[in-house]
Amino acid sequence: MTGKRKLYISIGQPGILCNSKNKNVLCVDIGGGSTEFIVGNDVNPIFSTRLRMGAVRFTREVFPDYVVRKNNVIAASHYAGGMVEAIKNEVLTAGYETAIFSAGTAKSVLSMAAANGLIKPEEKVFTYSHLTKIHDLVLSRKEMDDRLVIPGLEAKRADVVVAGVIILKAIFDKLEIKEGYYSEYALREGVLLAVMQ
Fold first, then answer.
1. Which fold has domain 3-192?
2. Domain ranges of the chain
3. What are the tens digits of pLDDT across the range 69-85?
């Protein structure tokens, strides 16, 4: 299976099957070492790429002691914004009607938004406004111990959530995303759905 096809099946195909039939969808997976982007529909992927920015990578390189400092936040935001800016024209030229996010960062934002009363617990969508509030909340907790008590945040993600929300906000900003849907589908579920078609 080619890398492009694997990426399409992993995050693109499930989102398209479940959320937006016959329409272009932007799917984003913020991983530990990289972030994957794909624009596609229920027939083919139109554009896909992988950027070398991930929550674990950014944490290791910019926040090695897990402490939030203004200069580190500025550096991380600038770098993430520059990375996404490099693919902005291709993504917007391909066009999309819905943005779908998978993996831990998006799940954490959704969970924190619900726990802090921004959305209902059963909702699977968060707006730019919701993201901005969660972004600011996370960055206001300078030490990891402070982040451990953020409502809705799993303890195991307190170390990487700062980098994750910075990357996610840069994606929303640069790609002009108004709202994002969270998808629970991973590679295994995507392959099964693709085979069933």
1. Nucleotidyltransferase; domain 5 (3.30.420)
2. 3-192
3. 999 999 999 999 999 99
